[in-house]
Design a protein that fits this description.
Radius of gyration: 21 Å
Helix content: 25-40%
Structural class: alpha/beta
Largest sheet: 7 strands, mixed
Mean pLDDT: 89
Number of strands: 15
Strand order of the largest sheet: 1-2-5-4-3-6-7
Length: 326
């Protein structure tokens, strides 16, 4: 489990945020080797890629850079087409924290994916972003890497620009190609054990606690609330969880979804009841680590059957935590 850190320092530069993760300082004329992608979930394949990037960086003592996106490109195009977004495995904050904990990257660059970025030609993306702004000398990408307007850009374009480009071979774990698509398929089946084996960690959502409608508190079931807004989570339902706040760990029951019984379902939410704890945690940074699937999210015919089920969820969660303590 990655404990939540304080906000990483960043500065805004046009359409990008830059997060310095290491204690090192980029030297003048130091080579910069970069990789680029969504890195959704940061699974074993991503971790293997960073291992290879480090091997290349060590040869020439290069600065290690990872370029990613928020909004993710497929989310931007889904919104533009008015269709349902593909589910996202992890949040940006969690991605950066896991990368930082790996010690394999000096700097993360987050490109805010918008219309201006989507319309760049391959040459414009290379010249304006990779070369002029980021000063990249080398790259490591997948063999089928595509980029820029209508995915016209390829490895050949990178090499033609003078960027020394190496290709990453896909990782197989237990004879299976590790990918974010595989994680989404496993999540649809609530196969948390296999997800953990391919990620190397449990799915975790880290964000700031916000005020909810206070309805659960009236039924003696207070919750902490994390809003996902338009981010469609890969997990959906009721789960047991660990919750980390200010370095302390709590046991929780977590609802991920849209709360169809009591809301219009316009935004995605993560609501967690902390077992045997009632604290004022508004504005705190909370990390919710998902442990075990209890049941699907359901729409009930009113509040009474809803809270009756929630108290049953609480009993089931207590039984789960009692078992793992044994």
């Amino acid at each position: 489990m990655i404990f939540p850190h304080s906000d990483v320092g960043f500065f805004y530069l046009g359409i990008m945020f830059r997060f310095k993760l290491s204690s090192k300082t980029l030297q003048s004329n130091q080579p910069i080797i970069a990789t680029i992608g969504n890195f959704d979930g940061f699974h074993l394949g991503h971790q293997e890629l960073l291992g290879q990037l480090n091997q290349l960086a060590n040869v020439q003592q290069a600065w290690r850079m990872l370029i990613t996106f928020d909004v993710l490109p497929h989310e931007y195009f889904a919104d533009k087409a008015g269709i349902l977004r593909s589910p996202r495995i992890g949040l940006l904050r969690d991605k950066i924290q896991i990368i930082q904990a790996s010690g394999m990257i000096d700097e993360v660059v987050v490109l805010h994916f918008n219309q201006a970025l989507a319309q760049l030609t391959p040459n414009e993306f290379i010249q304006k972003i990779l070369l002029e702004r980021l000063k990249i000398s080398d790259m490591l990408v997948g063999h089928d890497f595509r980029f820029s307007n209508q995915a016209q850009g390829s490895i050949a374009d990178l090499r033609a620009s003078g960027i020394v480009t190496s290709e990453f071979a896909e990782l197989k774990h237990q004879q299976v190609r590790v990918s974010s698509s595989l994680i989404r398929e496993l999540a649809a089946d609530q196969n948390l054990a296999m997800i953990q084996s391919y990620l190397g960690h449990n799915i975790c959502y880290t964000s700031r606690v916000v005020k909810g409608n206070q309805l659960a508190r009236k039924w003696n079931f207070p919750t902490i609330n994390l809003n996902l807004y338009k981010i469609r989570p890969v997990l959906w339902g009721i789960y047991t969880s660990y919750v980390y706040i200010d370095g302390k760990r709590y046991f929780g029951v977590t609802n991920i979804g849209k709360n169809p019984t009591v809301s219009e379902g316009k935004v995605y939410k993560i609501e967690t009841h902390l077992l045997d704890v009632d604290l004022d945690l508004y504005s705190k940074i909370a990390a919710v680590e998902i442990l075990h699937f209890l049941r699907p999210e359901l729409k009930f015919d009113g509040l009474e059957p809803l809270f009756k089920q929630m108290y049953q969820d609480l009993a089931d969660a207590r039984a789960f935590f009692a078992k793992i303590k044994e």
